[in-house]
Description:
Layout: E1 2-7, E2 16-20, E3 27-32, H1 54-59, E4 79-81, H2 87-90, E5 102-105, H3 106-119, E6 128-131, E7 137-139, E8 142-149, E9 156-163, E10 166-170, H4 181-189, E11 197-201, H5 215-227, E12 233-236, H6 242-255, E13 258-262, H7 263-272, E14 287-290, H8 293-303, H9 305-311, H10 317-322, E15 327-331, H11 335-344, E16 352-355, H12 359-363, H13 367-373, E17 377-380, H14 389-399, E18 403-407, E19 430-432
Parallel strand pairs: 3-4, 4-5, 5-6, 10-11, 11-18, 12-15, 12-16, 13-14, 13-15, 16-17
Antiparallel strand pairs: 1-2, 1-19, 2-3, 7-8, 8-9, 9-10
Helix pairs in contact: 3-7, 4-14, 5-6
Bound molecules: zinc ion (ZN).
Zinc ion (ZN) is lined by residues 84, 86, 151, 153, 173, 385.
Amino acid sequence: MKLIIHRGTHEIGGSCVELCSDSGRTRIVVDVGMPLVSPERMPFEWRQYKNLSQEQLLEQRVLPSVEGLYNHQKLSISAVILSHAHQDHYGFFRFVHPDIPIYMSIGTKCIVEISNLFLGTGVNLNRVQTFTMWLPFRVGEFTITPYLMDHSAPDAAALLIEADSQRLFYTGDFRGHGRKHVLLERLIKNPIYNVDCLVMEGSMIGREEGQFPDENAVEQAIFEIIANQSSYAFVFCSSQNLDRLVSIYRAVKRARKVLVIDLYTAFVLDKLSAISRSIPQFDWEEVRVLYAYSHAKKLAEYDRKLLYKYKKAKIGWDEILTNPHDMVVLSKDNFYFRKVVLRKLDTSSGSKAIYSMWHGYIEQTDLPQVLESHNIELVEIHTSGHAYVGDLKKLACAINARYLVPIHTFYPEKFLQMSPKVILLNDDEQMTLADSTK
Ligand SMILES: [Zn+2]
């Protein structure tokens, strides 16, 4: 088996990994992500490139150089497999040749479908095949077994990939301090044996762990704020971060408050009920749904019946205005929040905003100034979606692969302190597992 990391050996984001059987007859690609940073390490702006042709995108090295993967090329890739539904792992799916089958988990498919509908990501889902966790499936000479992992995206998978008597384990993105931390604990206690090559993410290498060690600490900190709120509490959080939505819901329930979600979030939670019945839903007692015209329009295009379905939990502005100290409003920093929510609500005394996302995002906006101008106190409560260095070491040690290849990190050389078996690759460099020659 041959391994080529087309992007990700020296950066977080834009992950794209190719595996080729020794015979050369089967080539598969794992993740086709959009970069998070430019070659100059500035935030990647897709707007700057979106009018370029596929040839130009390849020429400028925006698209990873995988022969036979794209629309305009002669097809030679047998399948694309998606580890999870974060843009930096699937953002370039729209360019994949329409005849290449794409494999992903059920939860991942839900999120990709919703993003298609609301954000127009342009992914053709007709050829998607869903896989079941821990159930092997075959693609040509490869056998692939997905492993459910704890991550901020729901239903995220690591992949055990076998061919030519070689075994490679690709972790995808994972952590050990979320609501499914038991998954990593089990993997460390009962590791996969005889792994030749562990391709492991290292997002947290070189980053601070932060004030809140896990989702329980996040839930408790949110609870302490909303239990004592004297006016509105706004919580800024991605509607696709399922673990965080659960943390917020649990805090709201304990504090006996009302969680106000938008139609988009109600739809995400409804779709994800396919993977677990313990995911909070629009019709749970503490949850109410605020209708915004733009969301209602999108949803009606997809299925008008959903608008009636969610209506039983609908909340109006009158009710929100009457009980500000009970309202925990799930928010996004967008036009609707700035021009509708902030204009409708009187936030002049005691309102709080909880920013529950990566700190780097708020640094790129003027949200703190906007909140301050409305007398809203800002508090940041967040924990990372990625494994701490201690957990990376534990997993690497438990799996004890012949080779450890870093991916999804800005500091691959720091892996050298973790294990003597580290092999540092460059993007597009080929490694043959059988003899470890690159
Ligand atoms: Zn991710």
